[in-house]
Amino acid sequence: MEQERSAQRARKKASVPMTAASDFVVPEGTDELSRSTRRAWRERLNDASSRKMITGVLATLAGGSFWGFSGTSASFLFDTYHVDTLWLMSVRQILAGLLFMVVVVTRDRERLVRLWTTPADRRQLLLFTAFGLLFNQFCYLSAVRLTNAGTATVLQCLQLVIIMGYACVVDRRMPRARETIGIGLALGGTFLIATGGDPTSLSISPLGLVAGLMCAVSAACMAVIPAKILPEYGSPIVTGSAMLTAGVVSCVFVQPWAHMPALDAAGIEALAVFVVIGSFFAYMLYMQGVKDIGSGRASLIGTVEPVSATITSAVMLGTVFLPTDLIGFVMIIVMMFLTV
What are the domain boundaries of the chain? Predict the structure, then answer.
């Protein structure tokens, strides 16, 4: 009876909520209490890891979907109002950056200051700003203007190959079978959605091709460069700091206030969707996904963007779905299950 009561007390103590990993010392004894405590701790860590994975996948999925709003809104502004590429890029970054800063300054000012006062972290932030945001936005919007939104998206998805190659070099391994299949499905799905299965529709100008390929390189940089500082500071601080910095720099050179386009109510609405949904929420959620599940997996799941772009184009611009679109949807959904 005494042994049974001791075991019950051990189980009861082991079930008590535990503190953070940094504050908890796992017992090394062989008694019932120590074994029960270690078992409960492992279960808690597994549950926390599962929650983090689910949160990261959902955040990346939402971020990629919101990017679809970005491409559709940009196409509408280019085609209807002949908005300048650099003007749209600078306005997007300065307004989205300010939205980020409102959130950060009111909730996490201390870590924001620490990011900017830590030399090594500040260096990573500035690299992310230059090659992950400024360069990517310029190349993507240039590719949209020089070709079309679908082709630009297809070329940007080549970042998957770059990131997977980077991961294989760093880990000194060959691509796994699931990764190889996932890349093939992601690229195949975006190709079908963007071109309708007709390779001739990818006939683009040399400048458009260069812009699209550089967009893929910069998109890979956007996923890889901030991977070390994201866990320390979080997505809103890192992304917001980079976005606002990029906005200030671009505004100094572009001076968007000097040549405002003539936007009516529909144009202002499209610009608001482009900035708030396609920039603020899209970047914050996607970078949160990079933090939680890693750059490689986040980039693969982020290829849900063409699905979102197709749906929003149908709703906003009257685009008609094709059978190849539906096949592309299925391929991207299967890819998501393979990579999570």
Answer: 63-339
